[in-house]
Design brief:
Helix 1 crosses helix 3 and helix 2 packs across helix 3. By secondary structure, the chain is mainly alpha-helical. It starts with a helix and ends with a helix. Bound molecules: zinc ion.
Length: 92
């Protein structure tokens, strides 16, 4: 279960950088259907994705580098949040 969650978290962040394969998309969907923790994580990532698209559309001409940096730092924060959740889960 834990291993699957890590795998899914990784697929979620990978989906920013590349197109997931059909198999990976299926794994992701299947796991999200069963796991509320990852569903929440995925949902917040998806929300951020919309924000990034907005930033990209409005900021690209100005400074693409900056947008990329803030994207990375937000993703990093989300990953840390996810780790905290997983830690709490372990200690219950
Ligand atoms: Zn999970």
């Amino acid at each position: 279960m834990k291993h699957a969650c890590k795998h899914v978290a990784r697929l979620t962040s990978d989906s920013f950088e590349r197109q997931l394969s059909l198999l990976e998309q299926m794994q992701l969907k299947l796991h999200l259907a069963m796991c509320g923790l990852c569903r929440n994580y995925h949902q917040s990532i998806k929300t951020m994705e919309h924000v990034f698209v907005y930033i990209r559309e409005h900021d690209l001409k100005k400074d693409d580098q900056l947008s990329n940096e803030s994207k990375k730092s937000i993703l990093y924060r989300l990953k840390k949040e996810k780790m905290k959740d997983a830690g709490m889960h372990k200690n219950h």
